[in-house]
Design brief:
The chain is mostly beta strands. Helices cover 8% and strands 35% of the residues. A 5-stranded mixed beta sheet has the order 22-30-29-24-27, with no helix packed on it. Helix 1 packs antiparallel against helix 2, helix 1 packs parallel to helix 3 and helix 2 packs antiparallel against helix 3. The chain is elongated. The N and C termini lie far apart (107 Å).
Length: 676
């Protein structure tokens, strides 16, 4: 088997890193083709990976850390995506058993390639030796003298290989059903492992989590040189146990649930795996969940201070969820030695515990940051507006990508800006699904064009747009109206007119429509001959088809009323009452002996003259009411020949009044008087 020459590989990494740094600084790197740049990056990545098992040596850690910094310079701010290939089942001779499988990988015989452990549903852990090589793996099940032959636990054995005590060999942790984690120290050698009896897992107490089962992965989450623990639970919760000890003497602290700002997901099962999938120098997290879906949490922080936000499901063509598969226990490992991380996953259910595999193409696919555009909306005064995905333009050269989330880079200058009732602060990230909870409320009574604004960036789940865009909020002033009245005669429809309604708009809007807010108790409001319902909206251009029809043979002063609101095409006024009067017809047959009744001037501001021309003598009542039904004049009169009355209205409130004349025999006449 091929061995790794530590000193030769270390010198090669150091030399290659210095050369890469030099050509970055002198500008030659950016003159290379994209393919050439990626080849250079991949070469150094492969050298780093080959030295990963020598992390106990300070010189190795120092040079590898320096190369990571230089690689981040080469990659720049452009995150790189991986391209996982077609799903394969039981690759390279690997198999699961007992209807469930949980893989782990490590060089157990120190021959320079990855061997596998596979836990099954009954607590056993099977050893598969890689009898191929680091580039072309081939696995053989080892049953004789297997280092895991004596490991037997409860249901669901979930192994993890890691050098937890930094002594140069791989130790073994096995998580089980009912939330137990057992620690098996490697008391053998790097090439001939021998695992101890189960030990207390160094303070890694999962009993308090109350989870039916747990799974564990280890990584240096705070970049302090030792390995921390990330534990997944039954309900897809994630717990962080910081290593408060050292690289050689691990001591795990108390668990922190859903750490590093990650947004919890709603699912069952949680199998964590940590890897730098986007090659930006920090650790990202994948979480295998129910039905084989994979939740990806990009680390948008740093190697020392991780930040996990909202997850993206099944990125990079990951497809571990064929019908019948109930879970995916992920494992990332460079199985073909090409410098990138390939994906394995244990399964349960329909695949009979098979091992799934999706190889990485080995080609860095640079993600193109998306772009957006300035946006705006118009809302109503004293209202609340929501937001939706259609308000945020999204364009991406990577045509399969869609808007994943937005980031608020600057908040509005006034008013309320909340996400599910909580104030939004700068740099708040909001997933597409959560946009429904984003609300803006302007200050009470205020309005205007370009009233307020905020800035945002869009993300495809990997990168945010390079530029921030402005979202402008216009606030429309609501129109106002006043109570009004109309009159018609018995058995006669009243056709509405624009002039029947007052309309005022503070920001210059025009009268576009009315809304019938409530219906009259008597009679009907009809549109095109059909009775309308409360809430119907009628355009002013259709008023010729809007009528009020009194019930047959009925009159009244007032007869009925209903509520209406006027609109400017954006919003409606506060509702007001429209009072309807239904009069007796003014004809000689209605009041026998009356030749004419006249009212002038109308409209009037000083004195209204009423003249009744009649040839008979009759007692009558002359009354005047405002549109609220309040009587402002009530006078009994005797008609004997022609009658004239002068009514001084100069002190009356401006508005609409109804003059009514009713004879002693029950005949009546009414007319609308406008005081201005």
């Amino acid at each position: 088997m091929k061995k790794i020459n530590l000193h030769f590989t270390l010198r090669r990494l150091k030399k290659s890193s210095k050369w890469l740094q030099r050509i970055i600084q002198n500008g030659r790197f950016n003159q290379f083709s994209f393919k050439k740049r990626q080849q250079l990056i991949s070469r150094i990545e492969r050298l780093k990976l080959s030295l990963s098992k020598f992390g106990q040596f300070q010189q190795v850690r120092k040079i590898v850390a320096g190369s990571a910094v230089i690689l981040s310079m080469a990659i720049g701010n452009t995150a790189t995506a991986q391209n996982f290939g077609t799903l394969q089942v039981n690759p390279f001779g690997l198999t699961g058993s007992n209807n469930v499988s949980f893989p782990a990988a490590g060089d157990l015989d120190n021959d320079g390639d990855f061997d596998f452990l596979i836990g099954d549903g009954y607590g056993a852990v099977q050893y598969f030796e890689n009898t191929g090589n680091a580039s072309v793996p081939a696995f053989t099940s080892v049953t004789t003298n297997s280092p895991t032959a004596n490991i037997s636990g409860y249901y669901f054995a979930m192994p993890t290989l890691v050098d937890i005590d930094n002594d140069g060999d791989l130790d073994l942790f096995v998580a089980e059903y009912y939330g137990t984690i057992n620690y098996y120290e490697n008391i053998g050698t790097p090439s001939s492992p021998s695992f101890s009896t189960p030990q207390t897992p160094l303070g890694l107490n999962t009993a308090t989590l109350g989870s039916i089962f747990v799974d564990v992965d280890f990584a240096d989450m705070d970049n302090d040189g030792d390995l921390d623990a990330i534990v997944g639970g039954y309900y897809a919760d994630v717990y962080y146990y910081e290593n408060t000890g050292t690289a050689t003497n691990a001591v795990f602290g108390n668990p922190v649930q859903n750490p590093f700002g990650m947004t919890a997901i709603t699912s069952d099962y949680g199998f964590p795996a940590l890897t730098d999938i986007d090659n930006d120098g920090d650790l990202d997290m994948f979480l295998g969940v129910y039905y084989g879906d994979m939740e990806y949490f990009e680390n948008t922080g740093t190697a020392s201070q991780a930040i996990f936000g909202v997850s993206v499901q099944n990125p990079y063509n990951i497809a571990l969820n064929p019908a019948g598969n109930s879970l995916a226990s992920p494992l990332f490992v460079d199985i073909d030695n090409d410098g990138d991380q390939d994906l394995f996953a244990g399964t349960y259910g329909g695949a009979a515990g098979a091992i799934f595999y999706q190889g990485n193409s080995g080609v860095f696919i640079p993600n193109t940051p998306p772009t957006s555009a300035d946006s705006s909306l118009t809302m109503n005064q004293d209202g609340t507006t929501g937001f939706h995905v259609g308000l945020f333009a999204f364009s991406d050269a990577d045509t399969l990508q869609t808007l994943s989330k937005i980031k608020i880079t600057a908040i509005p200058g006034s008013g309320g800006f909340n996400l599910f009732g909580f104030p939004v602060s700068p740099n708040t990230e909001i997933s597409v699904a959560d946009l429904v909870g984003l609300k803006y409320i302007p200050l009470a009574g205020q309005y205007g064009t370009n009233f307020d604004s905020f800035s945002f960036q869009v993300s495809d789940g990997i990168d945010y747009s390079a530029a921030a865009y402005q979202f402008t909020i216009n606030v429309n002033a609501l129109p106002t109206t006043t109570q009004t009245a109309v009159g018609t005669n018995e058995n006669t429809d009243y056709v509405f007119d624009v002039n029947d309604f007052t309309f005022n708009d503070p920001d210059g809007g025009t009268f576009q429509e009315i809304q019938i807010v409530t219906l009259p108790i008597k009679g009907q409001v009809k549109f095109n001959g059909t009775a309308i319902t409360a809430g119907d909206i009628i355009a002013t251009t259709d008023f010729a088809n809007l009528v009020f029809s009194p019930d047959a043979n009925e009159t009244g002063f007032p007869y009925t009323d209903f509520q209406f609101a006027v609109g400017d095409g954006m919003g409606f006024s506060t509702p007001q009452a429209l009072i309807v009067t239904v009069n007796f017809p003014v004809t000689t047959t209605a009041i026998d002996g009356f030749d004419a009744i006249t009212l002038s001037p109308n409209p009037v501001s000083e004195v209204a003259n009423i003249r009744i021309e009649t040839q008979v003598s009759k007692s009558a009542t002359l009354s005047i009411q405002n549109i609220a039904g309040q009587v402002v004049l009530n006078q009994n009169i005797e008609l004997n020949g022609n009658f004239n009355a002068a009514v001084n209205v100069s002190n009356w409130a401006k508005g609409i009044y109804i003059i009514r004349l009713q004879t002693i025999d029950g005949k009546a006449w009414a007319e609308k008087l406008i005081v201005q």
